[in-house]
Structure formats: structure tokens, C-alpha cells
Design goal:
249 residues; Leucine-rich repeat, LRR (right-handed beta-alpha superhelix); 3 helices; signal; Leu-rich_rpt_typical-subtyp
Length: 249
């Protein structure tokens, strides 16, 4: 009888397919399909080269840096010129993308002006508090398709304006701490090793409302069984269709 009640309470939750976010900070598939690049998101800014400050083999403009598909060696941060502190002189930088370059850590000394940081498809294994320190304006963080197994407690506190977090396709075995107290509205956790979800992982204890409600939570393709998740886990999510659950692949 108890299992039947839990199933009915979760009946409104969608687990049929991947969640597709379409909001203020969603620049994913639509941009790629239309040929819009990150520099097109700032049409009022002239595409002036950053000159000698631009890391070797990267493409730089006034507010945008892209260092992708470089096939770097065993010490990619050093060999590419994107080692720690490489971006400190770029005071107005808003967007950094370092994808598929084999880097193993988040570069330190990133400028506080950043609003988007994309480090997808690398070999990063851990997110610690120091790596996100000072990123007070960061709104979107993409860390999908890495090897991340740990997100240290307190890491997300260094990004108070973060709204969208992508940690899909990693090696996490639990939901990162700090989501319940944060303003994050979209969090991708699909294709990880999460085997259990606690009732306070996403929402504050009790039935208090979160500072900002989620518009997207993806948990499909994890070992956790959706019927084992307590209905109260998503008590601060007002649109149930925003939650994506599903069986382990």
C-alpha cells in the first residue's frame, strides 16, 4: 500500500526523456543549430582581438575566450598557455569555454567578471572551493562529460549568483551539497553514479520554500530508483514536469 501511494505522488513527475531547458541562460542546442557563437550573444561589443593576452592557440575577443579541441598533451594547462592566472588581465571577460582539451583541474585566478564558464569534455576529477573562489557573477557553470567524483562542501557558496549547473556525465555518487540553500534553478545530474537521494538534497529542511524554485532537475540514468525517492524531496519545485527521473541504463 505504501509503495502504491508513493508511486501516485510521483505520477506527475516526468521520466520519459531528457529535460530540455529553455530559459535566460540556455544557449545550448538552439545556438549550435543556428550557427550562433558566444560572441553573437554580446552584439553590442566589437569583436576586437585581445592581442598578446590571448592564450596560445585560443580564440579571443573582448568578452569571449574559446580554447576547444586542442588535443593537448600530459600538461595541457601549461602547453596551451591557459595555466593558472592566464585570464586575470582580461577584466571584462564574460565567457570562457575550454572544452575537450584534457585539462584535469579548473584553472585558478579566473576573472570575477565571468558570467559563463564551460569546461565540458575534459578530465577534471574534483571541484573544490578554491577553484570557484571569487566568481561572484558566474551564472552558468558547465562541467559535463568530465570525471568528477567529488564536489567539496562550500564550493557553491563561492558562486552566489549561479543559476545553472551542469554536472551530467560524470562519476558523482551523491547529490552535491549546498543546492538546497542556493539560488540554482537548473541542475543537470544525469548519467552519474548517484545511488541515493536525500529528502533535503534539493530543498531546505521542513517545508520552507527555496530562495528560487527549480525550473529543471535531471536525475535520469543514475542507479537510484525513482520509486525510492521520497515525494517531499521536491517540495520546493512547483512545476513537477521540470523533474526528470528514470531507470538506470
Amino acid at each position: 500500500m505504501k509503495a502504491t501511494i508513493i508511486f501516485l505522488l510521483l505520477a506527475q513527475v516526468s521520466w520519459a526523456g531528457p529535460f530540455q531547458q529553455k530559459g535566460l541562460f540556455d544557449f545550448m542546442l538552439e545556438d549550435e543549430a543556428s550557427g550562433i557563437g558566444p560572441e553573437d550573444r554580446f552584439p553590442e561589443v566589437p569583436l576586437e582581438p585581445l592581442g598578446p593576452m590571448c592564450p596560445f592557440r585560443c580564440q579571443c575577443h573582448l568578452r569571449v575566450v574559446q580554447c576547444s579541441d586542442l588535443e593537448l598533451g600530459t600538461n595541457p594547462l601549461k602547453s596551451s598557455g591557459i595555466e593558472n592566472g592566464a585570464f586575470q588581465g582580461m577584466k571584462k571577460l564574460s565567457y570562457i569555454r575550454i572544452a575537450d582539451t584534457n585539462i584535469t583541474t579548473i584553472p585558478q585566478g579566473l576573472p570575477p567578471s565571468l558570467t559563463e564558464l564551460h569546461l565540458d569534455g575534459n578530465k577534471i576529477s574534483k571541484v573544490d572551493a578554491a577553484s570557484l573562489k571569487g566568481l561572484n557573477n558566474l551564472a552558468k557553470l558547465g562541467l559535463g562529460f568530465n570525471s568528477i567524483s567529488t564536489v567539496d562542501n562550500g564550493s557553491l557558496a563561492n558562486t552566489p549568483h549561479l543559476r545553472e549547473l551542469h554536472l551530467n556525465n560524470n562519476k558523482l555518487n551523491k547529490v552535491p551539497g549546498g543546492l538546497a540553500e542556493h539560488y540554482i534553478q537548473v541542475v543537470y545530474l544525469h548519467n552519474n553514479n548517484i545511488s541515493a537521494v536525500g529528502s533535503n538534497d534539493f530543498c531546505p529542511p521542513g517545508y520552507n520554500t527555496k530562495k528560487a524554485s527549480y525550473s529543471g532537475v535531471s536525475l535520469f540514468s543514475n542507479p537510484v530508483q525513482y520509486w525510492e525517492i521520497q515525494p517531499s524531496t521536491f517540495r520546493c519545485v512547483y512545476v513537477r514536469s521540470a523533474i526528470q527521473l528514470g531507470n538506470y541504463k
